[in-house]
From TrEMBL:
It comes from Paracoccus saliphilus. The keyword Transferase does not apply. This is Enoyl-CoA hydratase/isomerase family protein. It comes from the Bacteria. Its main location: other. SUPFAM superfamilies: 6-phosphogluconate dehydrogenase C-terminal domain-like, ClpP/crotonase, NAD(P)-binding Rossmann-fold domains. The keyword Acyltransferase does not apply. CDD domains: crotonase-like (cd06558).
Length: 703
């Protein structure tokens, strides 16, 4: 690696410009400018690091009075090149570059725009000063990748901005805009106009001395404040080892700088090649792959300038909020004036809440309010390029809505359905142009949840699929492409998981034991707590619909039917699998009685299930269903299942997702789990080709 980056090549222009391909060196009246140019996001690769070390040496030789580090293109440096993290790192490493900056006799200013993240921000923290565009985003996301910052982030950041703030920023991987970071000293100045001019002026107008962050002492703050920040992130970090390490390192930031920097580097190196960071990197790459479909060029996407949303219920409102937040105008259609007013008012109230919490400013709230138009006639959607229907989950209603849209919309406008389960091909069959129809399955709340299942129906045109993917990008959503199938990828796998959980309850595990095993695995909530939260009635209605066609070869669990019949629909009725009289879920003897009755009726002899067995059976159910749907081509690739489950269903990210996790389990043990799953499910159980799918996941060529 880096052959082309070894030599510094000189390009002849009026001023001497040198470049190793990734860092361009230029002298501007005694100030050396080092411009990092490694498209698309100036990742700090080996070539960049070499270019920086060369450039700093060159600036010394040229007797520069100061140096400006700046990024070419859209940002400063978005982070390290994660592909390098799988192998031993090559010299110079980032700490070597920073050591060269600190050792230089001249002051070095980092000029930040776009993003300065991870190694990018650490590089900037290693400089003497930081000047930034007000909207530049600064952050240290290493914790979200199972690591700690490894180039001084845990040491230089607290010395500049204090320990408690640093703990929050590092452990929660928060990004903050430079304008917000100015008051507490993370940046020294904001640049309203041209960034490079501002940085040059910053160095020229006032004599600047060296000011190494490592030599500073963290601003004083009460120990309790620091401890409170630590306690808070530990709770949220769900006990991940890297979070605890990050806290320890930040807390030590008033100690000897060299010793602490060495400590940090050693922790970073261990975590970098550890199982969690390796899994999280795999997931990171899987997420990027999931946004791509072979043969589909995003540039071919039909353009979308205004989005229509039909139905202003839970999902319609959420989708409208998400689209407005992305800066696109929305036309919202409801059935009548009253329903429309309710929906528009609710969106307004939500904006007000966001404003009160400081999540958006008054200008943004006004702009979003102004960009929302409400109508109660399909004709009002005529100027939309893409319309998403989020009306009742009913084939008849949806077909009627689509027919109305076809009559109203211009021919090239895209029609999308947010259906959870329905067959989109059947929905669009009666249209003249079913090729303009796509599924866009959002998750609730749609403006918060990152996942978007983009459903490619049999007839969906390539430029319509591209429009769906482009919209996902515009909304900062993680897309996963699915084919039509009952529940697409996520809900289909979730249904298999919930079925297994209910069977476990029937066979002897208490709901709280199942939920505890699942949270013990790393989910935020177990399946029964989730069912109570979303309401038991939707699944009940579905079971009643499917009663006639139910396969008698699959064991059926009657417990949730009895709960619903008893009016226990979940949290909203104060009781479901749990009792909510106290506000918190409590095990309920009435539920235990229902379970016992149903067990007797089913002739089940109950037995104990250790927590680990519960976990492994639920994983087996997920993995088996995933294998079935990959076999059917519902998901493009095994890693898309991992992306779906981690972004939409709370599957713990640090495992890499269910299939990544399964591929690292003992095969004999996994086979035994799958056999047990088959036995528990009934004779009609369908076993997916798990071995083949995991093989595909593991083979580098396929992925
Ligand atoms: P909801 O019942 O809260 O909202 C549906 C809204 O559509 C109602 O406000 C109703 O007045 C309106 N509506 C019905 N027919 C209409 C028509 N012909 N024209 C205009 N408006 C009409 O339902 P929800 O939960 O928002 O679900 C909507 C769709 O989203 C369903 O297909 C559902 O399966 C799907 N979905 C729901 C999720 C959830 O968590 N609730 C998650 C993902 C998808």
């Amino acid at each position: 690696a880096g052959a082309k980056s070894q030599g510094v090549l000189t390009v002849k222009t009026e001023t001497a410009v040198r470049s190793n391909g990734s860092v361009i060196y230029r002298m501007d009246d005694r100030i050396a400018v080092l411009e990092i140019s490694n498209p698309p996001v100036n990742a700090s690769s080996l070539a960049v690091r070499m270019g920086l070390v060369d450039g700093l040496a060159r600036a010394g030789a040229d007797c520069a009075a100061g140096v400006v580090l700046i990024g070419a293109g859209k940002c400063f440096v978005a982070g390290s090149d994660l592909r390098e993290f799988e192998l031993p790192l090559s010299k110079p490493e980032l700490p070597d570059v920073i050591a060269a900056i600190e050792a230089a006799e001249f002051p070095v200013v980092a000029a930040l725009h776009g993003v300065a993240l991870g190694g990018g921000l650490e590089l900037a923290l290693g400089c003497d000063y930081r000047i930034a565009k007000p909207d530049a985003q600064l952050g240290l996301p290493e914790a979200s990748l199972g690591m700690v910052p490894g180039a001084g982030g845990t040491q230089r950041l607290p010395r500049l901005i204090g320990k408690s703030r640093s703990i929050g920023m590092i452990c929660q991987a928060t990004r903050i805009p430079a304008a917000e970071a100015l008051p507490f000293g993370l940046v020294d100045a904001l640049a309203e106009g041209d960034l490079l001019d501002a940085a040059l002026t910053f160095l020229r107008d006032t004599p600047r001395t060296k000011r190494r962050a490592r030599d500073l002492t963290p601003p004083p703050e009460p120990t309790e404040t620091v401890q409170a920040a630590a306690d808070q992130v530990l709770r949220r970090g769900r006990g991940r080892p890297n979070v605890a390490e990050a806290i320890r390192l930040v807390q030590g930031a008033d100690g000897d700088a060299s010793a602490m920097l060495a400590d940090e580097r050693a922790v970073f190196q261990t975590l970098r090649v550890g199982p969690e960071a390796t899994a999280l990197r795999a997931l990171f790459f899987a997420e990027r792959r999931a946004a791509m479909v072979d043969s589909i060029d995003l540039k071919s996407a039909r353009p979308v300038r205004r989005v229509g949303v039909i139905g202003g219920g839970t999902m319609g409102q959420g989708i409208a909020r998400a689209v407005l937040a992305a800066g696109l105008p929305v036309t919202l259609l409801e059935r009548d004036a009253d329903a429309l007013k309710r929906a528009v008012d609710a969106i307004g109230t939500h904006l007000q809440g966001q404003l009160a919490k400081g999540r958006i400013d008054a200008g943004q709230a006004d702009a979003r309010r102004a960009a929302l138009t409400g109508v109660f006639d399909t004709a009002g959607l005529a100027d939309c390029d893409l319309v998403i229907e989020a009306v009742f989950e009913d084939m008849g209603v949806k077909r009627e809505v689509l027919a109305g849209l076809e009559r109203t919309l211009p021919a090239e406008a895209v029609i999308a359905s947010n259906t959870s389960y329905l067959d989109i091909d059947e929905m669009s069959a009666a249209l003249d142009h079913p090729d303009r129809v796509i599924g866009l399955h959002f998750f609730s709340p749609a403006d918060v949840m990152p996942l978007l299942e983009v459903v490619r129906a049999r007839s969906t045109a390539p430029d319509v699929l591209a429009a769906g993917l482009a919209l996902a990008r515009r909304l900062s959503k993680q897309p996963v492409v699915a084919k039509v199938s009952e529940g697409f990828i996520g809900n289909r796998i979730y249904a298999a998981y919930r079925r297994r959980a209910e069977l476990l309850a029937l066979d002897g595990a208490t709901p709280q034991a199942v939920d505890a095993a699942v949270t013990g695995f790393g989910f935020a909530m177990g399946p029964f707590a989730v069912a109570d939260m979303s309401g038991l009635d939707i699944a009940w209605a579905m079971r009643k619909r499917q009663a006639a066609t139910r396969d008698p070869g699959l064991r059926y669990v009657t417990i949730p039917d009895r709960l619903c019949e008893a009016g226990r629909l979940g949290r909203k009725t104060g009781a479901g699998w749990y009792d909510y009289a106290t506000g918190k879920p409590q095990p309920d003897p009435a539920v235990a009685e229902i379970i016992e009755t149903e067990r007797r009726a089913a002739g089940v002899t109950s037995r104990d299930f250790p927590g680990e067995e519960i976990q492994r059976q639920l994983m087996a159910a997920i993995v088996n269903e995933a294998a079935c749907l990959i076999d059917e081509g519902v998901a493009q690739r095994p890693s898309d299942v991992d992306v779906t489950m981690c972004n939409g269903y709370g599957f713990p990210r640090w495992t890499g997702g269910p299939l990544y996790w399964a591929a690292r389990q003992d095969r004999g043990r996994l086979r035994a789990d799958l056999t047990q799953l088959a036995q528990a499910s009934g004779p009609a159980h369908r076993a997916g080709p798990v071995g083949a799918v995991l093989g595909r996941l593991m083979s580098a060529t396929e992925e």
